[in-house]
Amino acid sequence: IIDNLSDLEKVAVLGHGDGYGTVYKVCHKKSSSIYALKVLRFDNNAASGVLQQAAREAEILKLVDSPYVIRCHGVFDSGAFMSADHNNEGGGDLCFVMEYMEGGSLHDVLRARQRLPENVISGMAKRVLEGLHYLHGMQIVHRDIKPSNLLINSRGQVKIADFGVSHLVAGALEVCDSYMGTYAYMSPERFDPERWGGDNAADGFAGDVWSLGLVVLQCHMGRFPLVGPGQKPDWATLMCVICFGERLEMPETASPELRSFIWRCLEKDWRKRATVDELLHHPFVNTTCCVSTDHELVNFVLPAD
Ligand code: ADP
Ligand code: MG
């Protein structure tokens, strides 16, 4: 249990995200345990929507408890943050103490390995599906599934992290506009609700499935799939491909199971898209000889050196 931020010593910077955060590797001096500390820093001009979203990240992190989702051991605010009149204060910090994931993110793994073998992809996909199954059961839509938000540890566990734009589905639809992440993994109905939305699309569960499909395809192709090699996925190009483009052709190199899995995720019409529960029964993540074990995942991700 961590009861004071001053017990933690910064060891290294682990990452800067797209948002307001910096993540540090920290050491708990009394126990010598290693944790990750995410620090969100706000100046006094931060918009109230941004502060609200940060408070939501804290709320969700305190709520979740699953082996497939990053664990949070404490949330600290520097005083100014959560106070009722934070607009009048000089900004502040919001800090999350999280379990440390030695393998880094899937983004790091892809940078080092380019393409992943199918058994490793199916092992990862299965674990992410378990995480989404848990979150969706808790009425939480993640809304930012992408390689840099999927973390791996030295036990071969894969966990969903970064609830920076996540959303607790309440009875009434609540649209959150403080989106700061990338558009690259966004589903058609989130990109263009007028054309692709319709009844209840905005609850967004299907959007997480779309993003997972793109991540899986990227792991197989070794590059972001929606634009040409070396091309930058800018907003206009993405808009065209995601909302108006033909359905993607599946690479010949993929097995029929992998192709079918991705097809079911990248169905443009969210009503026809597979749900997480359907995908958990899909052969791609259930043919035992094809799904990597924790051990195989570790060996692949953290090669002995
Ligand atoms: P942001 O909301 O700014 O995107 P993230 O929570 O996604 O912040 O963290 C940014 C990066 O920091 C991640 O992509 C990952 O590389 C690293 N990181 C985050 N949390 C951890 C952790 N618990 N263990 C190891 N690395 C982490
Ligand atoms: Mg992130």
TrEMBL record:
Signal peptide: none annotated. GO terms for cellular component: cytoplasm. GO terms for molecular function: ATP binding; MAP kinase kinase activity; protein serine/threonine kinase activity. It comes from the Eukaryota. It is an enzyme of class 2 (transferase). GO terms for biological process: response to other organism; response to stress. It catalyses: L-seryl-[protein] + ATP = O-phospho-L-seryl-[protein] + ADP + H(+); L-tyrosyl-[protein] + ATP = O-phospho-L-tyrosyl-[protein] + ADP + H(+); L-threonyl-[protein] + ATP = O-phospho-L-threonyl-[protein] + ADP + H(+). SMART domains: S_TKc. Residues 8-285 form the Protein kinase domain. Keywords: ATP-binding, Kinase, Nucleotide-binding, Phosphoprotein, Serine/threonine-protein kinase, Transferase. Pfam families: Pkinase (PF00069). Its EC number is 2.7.12.2. Belongs to the protein kinase superfamily. STE Ser/Thr protein kinase family. MAP kinase kinase subfamily. This is mitogen-activated protein kinase kinase. It comes from Rubus argutus.
